[in-house]
Specification:
The chain is α/β, with parallel strands linked by helices. It folds into two domains: about 10-275 and about 480-495, 3-Layer(aba) Sandwich (Aldehyde Dehydrogenase, Chain A, domain 1), CATH 3.40.605; about 280-465, 3-Layer(aba) Sandwich (Aldehyde Dehydrogenase, Chain A, domain 2). The chain is about 40% helix and about 20% strand. The protein has 17 helices and 22 strands. The chain has a seven-stranded mixed β-sheet, with helices on both faces. It has a six-stranded mixed β-sheet with strand order 9-8-7-10-11-21, sandwiched between helices. Strands 5-6-22 form a three-stranded antiparallel β-sheet. β3 (about 40-45) and β4 form a beta hairpin. The radius of gyration is 24 Å and the shape is globular. It starts with 6 loop residues before the first helix and ends with a strand. The protein binds 1,4-dihydronicotinamide adenine dinucleotide (NAI) and magnesium ion. The site of 1,4-dihydronicotinamide adenine dinucleotide (NAI) has 26 residues, from α9 and α10.
């Protein structure tokens, strides 16, 4: 551990990991599913089966929830000090960092993203998140509260609050940043002292399972983190509906987010949601146009466009429109689409055949509605899951491609004339996850930031993530926040203690 590993050794470690069907982690043990069933995960760059995974469903979820409940109520975890929890979470971050290469390679094989991106972004950001959250574990304080209600002249009260964990948490995550989404969910839940059943996306379960090995190596007690891979309609739905789960935290489509809310009504479990987006990215004519062009291209094309906060609606002040759109199209043409394992690849395949079909359908609908592709607009050859980075113009605000999340490398570009018009059109969507603003006029930047209904606003940058920066959605982009101090509120609950003294 911690020593340099040659590429061949990494390959050997990763191929060992995926050689036999991967088991699920329940109560500190790696087990098969009760049904004995497995499901395949694919390498999206080849379309071939990459690995077989134990397929969890309701029966496995029931066992995992029992283990998490026991660990929460009576296991060693429930008696640990906050500092002991902090040390375990910090250690997990260290172990992850020591295994960057193995995680990055596995992520690329399972998700398709360029290896350089997995190595430089996904894995280090996940390690960082654990360390940031480790720091919070022993700083979750309540308050003392002066009361003004003595009912009798002599009565005095001492009142304070305790911040306690919510309990048993189900976490359902997507496939676009498989390891990082696991970290965003696990880190704060663990810092606050909860226990967890994590369900990775069926398309990309491998890095979460590898993380499970590090969780055991770090020394987390049995049952604190349970990992149950499986499909959404079975394992995911069973978690969302489970009567002994205290909270469900979900990242994925707005459509499934609504199903989760309905499923949660049985026991009124708490719900947090990080859902879709159709984020506006606004370029004013006084921006540094070179950096606005590069930033706008990366705002949409990063991660094959499979980013919930992707800058998918590009608004450009009219006199700069042609220059910016031509610039972004030129950047799109320069993108090298290919297998994430090749060193010069800058965009990998989409994650799945389903996602490819969804994205291509949107491109076709856009064209049929009258949009024009400045560049792109098609899948690439007969190769699996690859699509062209695409810039659509001549759009109208009510078109499907302008209103709906495509979740692929497709941006719609449109000119605007005034800041007022811009704000109303930029806000004209059911989503409100993020927004970008490019201008040298900082007053205008902050006025625009205030006018946009979005959980994150990036000024002269885009897709900047930090464990300390809260992230989440306005409107139908979600409930609650991930990361930062804000997320800890959502993994704790307040107990008010009032004593007559
Ligand atoms: P999805 O929302 O179906 O999947 C996300 C997670 O939810 C997966 O773990 C899945 O197994 C689980 N799930 C699915 N149905 C469930 C149910 N009934 N109950 C509980 N859990 C369930 O997303 P999908 O189908 O993979 O992608 C569809 C679209 O969703 C994408 O095109 C994109 O627009 C959006 N999406 C947004 C993401 C985000 O980061 N906000 C991430 C992934 C997808
Ligand atoms: Mg789905």
């Amino acid at each position: 551990m911690g020593t340099a590993i040659s590429p061949n050794q990494i390959d050997a470690r990763v191929s060992d990991f995926i050689e036999k069907p991967r088991k699920m982690l329940i109560d500190g043990k790696w087990v098969n599913s009760v049904s004995g069933k497995t499901f395949p995960t694919y390498n999206p760059a080849t379309g071939e089966v990459l690995a077989q995974i134990a397929e969890g469903d309701k029966q496995d979820v029931d066992i995992a929830v029992k283990a998490a409940r026991k660990a929460f109520e009576s296991g060693p975890w429930s008696k640990m000090s906050a500092t002991q929890r902090s040390k375990l979470i910090w250690k997990l971050g260290d172990l992850l960092e020591q295994n960057v290469e193995q995680f990055a390679l596995l992520e690329t094989l399972d998700n398709g993203k360029p290896l350089a991106v997995a190595r430089a972004a996904d894995v280090p950001l996940a390690a960082d998140l654990f360390r940031y959250m480790a720091g919070w574990a022993n700083k979750l304080e309540g308050t003392t509260i002066p009361l003004s209600v003595p009912y009798t002249p002599k009565a005095k009260y001492l009142a304070y609050t305790l911040r306690e964990p919510v309990g048993v948490i189900a976490q359902i995550i997507p496939w676009n940043f498989p390891l990082l989404m696991a970290a965003w969910k696990l880190g704060p839940a663990l810092a606050a002292g909860n226990t967890i059943i994590l369900k990775p996306a069926e398309q990309t379960p491998l890095t979460a399972l590898l993380l499970g090995e590090l969780i055991m190596e770090a020394g987390f007690p049995d049952g604190v983190v349970n990992i149950v891979p499986g499909y959404g309609e079975t394992a995911g739905a069973a978690l969302a509906a489970h009567d002994d789960v205290d909270k469900v935290a979900f990242t994925g489509s707005t459509e499934v987010g609504k199903l989760i809310v309905h499923a949660a009504t049985g026991n009124l479990k708490k719900v947090t949601l990080e859902l879709g987006g159709k984020s506006p990215n606004v370029v004013f004519k006084d921006a540094d146009l070179d950096s606005a062009i590069a930033g706008s291209a990366s705002a949409i094309f990063f991660n094959q466009g499979q980013t919930c906060c992707a800058g998918s609606r590009l608004f450009v002040e009219r006199s700069a429109f042609d220059q910016v759109v031509e610039g972004v199209s030129a950047q799109a043409k320069k993108i090298k689409v290919g297998s994430g394992l090749e060193a010069d690849t800058t965009m990998g395949p989409l994650v799945s055949d389903e996602q490819l079909r969804r994205v291509v359908k949107y491109m076709d609908i856009g064209m049929a509605e009258g949009a024009r592709a400045m560049t792109g607009g098609k899948k690439i050859g007969e190769k699996v899951y690859f699509v062209e980075p695409t810039v659509l113009v001549d759009t109208k605000d009510d078109m499907k491609v302008v209103q709906e999340e495509i979740f692929g490398p497709v941006v719609v570009a449109t000119p605007f004339d005034t800041p007022e018009e811009l704000a109303s059109r930029a806000n004209n969507t059911v989503y409100g996850l993020a927004a970008g603003i490019w201008t040298k006029d900082l007053s205008k930047a902050h006025r625009t930031a205030a006018a946009l209904r979005a959980g994150t606003v990036w000024i002269n940058c885009f897709n900047i993530f930090d464990a300390a920066l809260p992230f989440g959605g306005y409107k139908q982009s979600g409930w609650g926040r991930e990361m930062g101090k804000d997320v800890l509120e959502l993994y704790t609950q307040t107990k008010a203690v009032c004593t007559r003294i």
